[in-house]
Specification:
545 residues, Jelly Rolls, ten-stranded mixed β-sheet, seven-stranded antiparallel β-sheet, globular
């Protein structure tokens, strides 16, 4: 065990252990308010006394990598760690219904903790993705016992990510459902299922109707996947009990939010940071060049988490940085510290779509609009970006940009560096032949060789009753691209893509307005993008300096 933990600690670039003499109490039964019992493993230094406790609540199991990463590694550095399996997973009683039981189960676990003779009264929570959501679910009501939180690549609500821009996140949600439904199979079956997931799921992303794909992927109907398809309206009350964004300002524990520029939760994690700031709190924010499952992100988070926990549970602030915000600036490939997010000193610069597919700060001249046809039978594919899989991150977009259903607008080579840090937004004047349609916008850096690398993007699903038409029948739409931090180097060009999809990251728009779960008919949309003095389509860039 100590050999494995030493190897993992080295991979995670952790400081030396205080001890390797660790005890593990397995399968502790933690009673819930409804009588269900959840299982937990407690990792603690032998003879360490009543040390501060770190609570990790996970649907992915308590042993293996999770047990080492969150349990033993931290116990070797002077903490007690309780790794608990969420309801209905890995031996815990009840039925796993994502998001819906984490508030009550988290608070019941806290009540149980307070009764244990080994509990010191000092608690922190830790974890990424779903493990981060379980933290937000109990954070407000945990009271003064909760001394610190580290939330990594996650958010206080998952509805936003599930329907980013109004379109269902098919790739992420089907992949996750497949993991949940295969991870507890016996023997090597879970490993083989994950190794073959990409091959198995790829053809299913093209299948219609969507309410059949869960059974095709897992061999059985998945109730929570069906729920997501049915409850896709923005104001659907089904999501209200599992949306904890409203409670974020009331969380008093110090919070360190760690995310990545290519993470699937980035915009909503930044909103959680902003909510804490507006409430007068002093959260830390670290954003690196990582995707959701990036190994480098895991390594950096392990180090940052230990520093945060030592500072707030043990009073050891020697390694805690002064600046609350640390950002990795891509392009320059440097870390920079700031007092807040967005960084002070940025100014909004409008870059306009130009005739002949140009892109520049100057207002556009009189010109004819550009047109393309989006065919959902051959949906515009996604390339890189914020994905749940290892295909995420920066990718070469040239093959994508060569498609006839993708427009590109490209600047002249920059005469000097241009640094962009903050939220990015597009304002487009458009027209579509279909009232139900999507528009997707992506910002890219084109290097001197011609390689076009994606930085950030966003999609907007249009429905009848959406943005009001201009007097001439055009629509003026605002599309929020995800935040970024990037330095466009001198000699590089800035490129904007405009299309109507990024499948299967966003499920294709059939163009008919049929229900998400049962839609089967596919109708092409003829799209028009305007760029003239009366229709100054533009990208709003947060430029530093």
């Amino acid at each position: 065990m100590t050999i494995a933990s030493r190897v993992l600690a080295r991979l995670l670039e952790m400081p030396p252990a205080d001890t390797y003499d660790i005890t593990v109490e397995k399968d502790l039964e933690v009673p819930m308010h409804d009588g269900v019992k959840l299982l937990a493993d407690r990792h603690a230094p032998c003879g360490g006394g009543r040390l501060p406790t770190i609570l990790v609540r996970s649907p992915y199991g308590r042993r293996g990598f999770f047990g080492f990463q969150f349990g033993r590694i931290l116990a070797e550095r002077g903490f007690q760690v309780l790794v608990q399996s969420c309801r209905g997973t890995f031996g815990s009683g009840g039925q796993f219904d994502p998001f819906r039981n984490e508030h009550a189960d988290g608070l019941a676990t806290l009540e149980w903790l307070k009764k244990q003779d080994w509990f010191s009264g000092e608690l922190a929570t830790l974890g990424s993705s779903y493990l981060g959501f379980t933290q937000w679910a109990l954070a407000r009501d945990a009271g003064p016992t909760l001394k610190a939180m580290v939330v990594h690549v996650t958010a206080s609500e998952f509805q936003g990510q599930t329907y980013a821009g109004g379109a269902f996140s098919l790739g992420t949600m089907l992949s996750w459902a497949h993991i949940i439904r295969t991870q507890e199979k016996p023997g090597l079956a879970p490993l083989l299922a994950q190794l073959g997931a990409s091959r198995k799921l790829k053809p299913l992303f093209q299948h219609l109707p969507l309410n059949e794909v869960d059974a095709l992927a897992t061999g059985e109907r998945v109730p929570f996947f069906q729920d997501w398809l049915e409850h896709n309206a923005p104001e659907d009350p089904w999501w209200k009990p599992v949306n904890f964004s409203g409670s974020v300002p009331e969380v008093t524990a110090p919070v360190h939010l760690i995310g990545g520029w290519y993470d699937i939760f980035l915009p909503w994690q930044v909103k959680d940071y902003a909510a804490l700031r507006r409430a007068g709190h002093a959260p830390y924010l670290t954003l690196g060049p990582w995707s959701h499952s990036s190994l480098k992100g895991v390594v950096a988070t392990a180090r940052e988490s230990l520093v945060w926990l030592q500072a707030h549970l043990k009073g050891d602030r020697r390694r805690l940085r002064e600046a609350p915000v640390r950002l990795f600036v891509m392009g320059a490939n440097v870390w920079r510290d700031f007092s807040e997010w967005p960084p002070p000193g940025t100014r909004t610069q409008r870059w306009h779509l130009q005739p002949e597919r140009g892109f520049a700060p100057a207002a556009p001249a009189a010109s004819e609009p550009d047109r393309f046809r989006y065919d959902p039978a051959d949906p515009t594919p996604n390339v890189g970006g914020p994905l749940f899989t290892n295909e995420a991150g920066p990718r070469d977009n040239r093959a994508l940009e060569a498609r006839p259903d993708v427009l590109t607008y490209t600047s002249a080579p920059l005469e000097k560096d241009l640094e962009v840090i903050g939220p990015v937004q597009a304002e487009l004047f458009i027209r579509s032949s279909r009232p139900h349609t999507d528009f997707f916008v992506r910002l890219c850096d084109v290097d001197p060789s011609g390689r076009s690398t994606n930085l950030c993007d966003g999609l907007l699903r249009l429905v009848p009753g959406g943005p009001a038409s201009e007097p001439d029948g055009t629509l003026r739409v605002s599309i929020d691209l995800w935040p970024t931090a990037h330095r466009f180097l001198a000699g590089h060009r800035i490129r904007l893509q405009v299309s109507s999809g990024a499948h299967p990251r966003f499920t294709r728009n059939p163009g008919t307005g049929e229900p998400l779960a049962t839609a089967k008919t596919l109708v092409p949309a003829d799209q028009t993008v305007f760029h003239d003095p009366s229709h100054p389509s533009a990208l709003l860039l947060p430029v530093m300096g």
